[in-house]
Write a structure and sequence with these properties.
Strand content: 5-15%
Structural class: alpha/beta
Bound molecules: S-adenosylmethionine
Shape: globular
Radius of gyration: 23 Å
Number of helices: 18
CATH architecture of the largest domain: 3-Layer(aba) Sandwich
Mean pLDDT: 95
Length: 452
């Protein structure tokens, strides 16, 4: 019999079974969104709401993964088999989040266990663990929350690196990254203004705050289908920090711009909204590159002005023809340590060696692209990372390697300033034109270089 999760009748049991199948894959190294897609594809007759519910269950569990695993270590006399550990973790997470009555969670977890061959025999064990947790929760929490990895929900090495890079801010960074992510939109400047869009939201009774020049934070998350103007291309979903790249590149009409690592095209589309420049959007992953074209089409920006090229940005000889570029945006692959609030699986997927390996890849991309920049042209380097190896140290090393590269201050910031730390939701204020940066954003590093 197949070990795939089956769609049990009641939604929570179905969501738990689906999320547990994904969780097992995730704990073996697969990104949570891909693991959920994989698990959903195994289900023969999915409950219509099971995937969305499973996403919710799995992502909220990832926000306290270390706590869940520490609790399981205390509740189980020996490590349970991975399918059992996965279901137990997700059911415990549901008990902790208190979204459902405890008896319903226990009942549904047992149903989910019975529905899947690999957990069927363990249903009584899961039942016993969850009931014991309910009886002993305060003592169990007190015992495990003394561990720093549990309090900050990150592996030891991850915490140590952040502490060493940010001796003042590391705890607030880690706590901010445990928040549920804010839903932030980018208003398409070709279609409407930010003020006009905010007025429309007010009339629709949707609570929102302006957090950047074109950035609007919707206080309550909602599916894109329910975002006013989304289908018509008036807005896109994009963090306000990511919205800094296009204006900071300062591309004018008639310029040639290269967006070197472009998919899914958030920054390409923003560039096309703000400028009349011609843009080459290069992406190595063919499947992801299709999303650039889809996004441009939704926004009404598909035209000869933007070319989507499938190619390796580190090997320009494969795809570069014609004159040099006036502007280059390198939004390089990175650890993504600045966007953990949106992807809570990241600290658990990365390994310490990934930081140096990605920094080497970023340096290779910088060195391959710099010769494509025209004299007096500008290159903006971006990573959604907090680790200095990918940010401040990468920028300094680049400037040492290329004597014709001059680091220029980012608009509104001091010379050398470029590391943006994630802003907690409680600190978000209304943005005004005097603000040098958005008032709510994830963690990013930016460095702007000009060719002498
Ligand atoms: C941080 S994401 C880019 C996000 C995008 N700029 C946006 O705003 O929507 C990095 C992208 O670079 C792509 N990539 C990684 N290495 C690459 C390479 N050598 N050449 C081209 N693309 C690459 C990845 O597939 C990924 O889509």
């Amino acid at each position: 019999m197949s070990d795939a999760p089956i769609a049990a009748g009641p939604p929570l049991a179905a969501a738990l079974a689906l999320a547990a199948a994904a969780w097992r894959e995730f704990r073996q190294g697969r990104a949570l969104d891909r693991a959920l897609e994989w698990a959903a594809a195994q289900v023969m007759t999915p409950h219509p709401r099971a995937l969305a519910a499973a996403q919710d269950v799995a992502y909220s569990a990832a926000r306290h993964l270390a706590l869940l695993e520490a609790l399981i270590a205390r509740l189980a006399p020996r490590p349970p088999a991975p399918p059992v550990a996965a279901l137990l973790a997700l059911a415990l997470s549901q008990l902790i989040s208190r979204r459902h009555p405890p008896y319903a969670v226990v009942d549904q977890a047992v149903h989910a266990a019975q529905a899947v061959p690999s957990t069927r025999k363990a249903a009584p064990f899961i039942n016993a663990c969850l009931r014991r947790y309910l009886r002993e929760a305060p003592a169990l929490h007190a015992a495990v929350e003394s561990e720093e990895t549990v309090r900050h929900n990150a592996p030891r090495w991850w915490i140590d690196r952040l502490r060493s890079a940010y001796p003042q801010a590391w705890t607030s960074i880690l706590q901010t990254q445990r928040e549920a992510p804010p839903l932030v939109l980018r208003v398409n400047a070709r279609r409407t203004t930010t003020d006009e869009y905010l007025r429309r939201l007010r009339l629709a009774g949707i609570a929102a705050t302006r957090v950047g020049a074109q950035a609007v934070w919707l206080h309550e998350p909602r599916p894109v289908a329910d975002i006013p103007g989304f289908a018509a291309g008036e807005v896109s979903v994009q963090d306000a920090g990511a919205q800094l790249a296009a204006p900071w590149l300062q591309a004018g009409a008639g310029m040639r711009v290269l967006d070197a690592c472009a998919a899914p095209g958030g920054k390409t589309a923003h560039l096309a909204e703000l400028t009349e420049a011609t843009i080459d959007a290069v992406e190595r992953d063919a499947a992801r590159s299709a999303r650039i074209s889809e996004n441009l089409a939704r926004l009404g920006l598909a035209s000869d002005r933007v070319r989507v090229i499938v190619g390796d940005a580190a090997q320009p000889a494969q795809w570069h023809r014609g004159p040099l570029y006036d502007r280059i945006l390198l939004d390089a692959p990175c650890t993504a340590s600045g966007i953990v609030r949106r992807h809570p699986d990241i600290p658990w997927l990365r390994r310490p060696a990934d930081v140096a390996q990605l920094a080497t890849q970023q340096a290779r991309l910088l060195d391959a692209l710099w010769p494509l920049l025209a004299p007096a042209g500008r290159l903006l380097y971006v990573v959604c990372s907090l680790f200095p190896e990918e940010g401040v140290e990468q920028a300094a090393a680049f400037e040492r390697r290329w004597t014709d590269a001059r680091r220029v201050p980012l608009p509104g910031l001091q010379a050398g300033e470029g590391q943006l730390l994630p802003v907690p939701l409680t600190a978000a204020t209304a943005w005004t034109v005097d603000c040098a940066r958005p008032t709510l954003h994830d963690g990013f590093f930016f460095a702007l270089f000009e060719k002498r």
